[in-house]
Amino acid sequence: KGRPETHDEL
Amino acid sequence: MNLFRIAGDLSHLISIFVLLHKMRTSKSCIGISFKSQVLYLVVYVTRYLDLLWTFQHSAYNSLMKIIFIGSSAYTIYLMLNDFKPTHDPNIDTFKVEYLIGGSAILALLFPYKWTTAEVLWSFSIWLESVAILPQLFMLQRTGEAETITTHYIFALGAYRALYIPNWLYRYFMESYTDPIATVAGIIQTILYSDFFYIYYTKVLKGRKFELP
Q1: Do A10 and B58 touch (CB under 8 A)?
Q2: Does A5 contact B at CB distance below 8 Å?
Q3: DSSP-assigned letter for residue B50
Q4: Which of A6, B65, B163, B211 could form a Cys-Cys staple with B48, CB 3.0–4.6 A?
C-alpha cells in the first residue's frame, strides 16, 4: 500500500 | 490504529493538560519557553491545514487536530496576557531562526510532492522534531525546573517516541512507510533522550529536576 494520499497520523 | 499510536496521542493530550494545569495552579508560566510554544503553534497550523479538506475523513484525527491547534493558541494567549509578567525573555534566548530555516530547507528539498500543502506538512514535521530545543536550552540555563514542568516535557517527548513503535508496527502489519515522519521522529526522540534520562533518574525518584 505504501503512503496514502492524505496523512492519517497526527 | 494501534496501541502505540493511541498511547502516543494520549501522551500528547496529557502534555497539553499538564501544561495548562501548571499555568493555572501556579498562575505563572515560569520555566516555559515562549519560543517553543510559538514553534508548536506554527507546527500545528502548517501541518493541520488539511483540516480544510480532510475534515470528514476521520472524526478522531480532526478532533485531535482542532485540540492541538486550539490549546497551542490558548497557551500562547495566556503567556502573552494573563501570565506575561512571569515570562522572562532574558532566559529564553535560543536562536529559532536556524530551526525554522533548516526545517524549511529540508521541506523544500525532500517533500513527498512539490505542492504547497505537502511542503508545509514536511516543514511541520521537521520543525516539530526540533521545536523543543528552546525549552531544553532554557532548562539548561536555569539548571532546574518545577516538577510539573518536567512532567509536561516528558509527556510531550513520549508522544513522538511512542510513534516509533507505531511506525514499526505499521511497516510490518500494513507495509506502510512514512520516511520523513520516521526520521524526524527518531531525531526528535534523540533530542529528548538526555532529558528523559535525567527525568528518569531524578524526578521519578521523587527528587527535583536539577541538572548535574
Answers
A1: no
A2: no
A3: G
A4: B65
Q: What is the CA radius of gyration of chain A?
A: 7
Count other C-beta atoms under 10 Å from residue B77's C-beta. Answer: 11
What whole-number distance in Å separates Cα of residue B14 and Cα of residue B137? Answer: 23
**Cβ within 8 Å, pair A7-B64:** no
Grid coordinates representing B42? 506554527
Location of C-alpha cell 501522551 = B11
**pLDDT tens track for B77-111:** 999 999 999 999 999 999 999 999 999 999 999 99
Residue of chain A minimizing CA distance to B1 = A9
Say what the alpha-carbon torsion angle B159, B13, B65, B61 is, to the nearest 10 degrees: 80
- Examine the pLDDT at A2 and tell me if it is beyond 50: no
Q: Hey, are the CB atoms on A8 and B58 less than 8 Å from each other?
A: yes
Distance (Å, whole) CA B146 – CA B210: 9
Length, in residues, of chain B? 212
Q: Residue B176 and residue A2: Cβ atoms within 8 Å?
A: yes
Structure ipTM over 0.90, yes or no: no
**pLDDT tier for residue A4 given thresholds of 50, 70 and 90:** low
**What is the residue type of B1?**
M
Residue A3: per-residue pLDDT: 53
